Amino acid sequence: MSEDLVKSIYLGIGSNLGDKKRNIERTKFNLIANNIKILKYSSYYESLSWPNPNNPKFLNVVLEIDTNFSPSELINKCKQIEKKLGRKRLPKNSPRECDIDIIDFRNKKTIGDLILPHPRMHTRNFVLIPLFEINKDWKHPILKVNIRKLISSLSNSDIRSIKQI
Description:
single chain; alpha+beta; Alpha-Beta Plaits; 6-stranded antiparallel sheet; 5 helices
């Protein structure tokens, strides 16, 4: 299939508080309940908390979804789901039950206040490795670099510090 025909939406979901696996499953359930169709999902990956590795480890997955929502409607739905699952607005990067990020929205670039694709996704092992699992041909919409090259540019410690569960 040509790249132009496949314009997917990818979400990253993470949890590092409570029953992390259950939090992610509840997030998926809530996405479906909000008319967001899950097409594919990665395995679970455990990684160190960033930027403070002393915080509890994260469990992460990447989903390929389909929805009729606009990017801003989707991010609003995601924030409602995070809140419903117990996320409180604490200082940036605090431990949390649920974190949902839009990784890529049909190759779109920044829309209003929403920065697309996710501005730091290309440096994050917990996004790139699960994304690679579900789409080995994904290409960064702005950098125009394929995912294999992005993964190979991660540090050895970044690659060693994540494990599939």
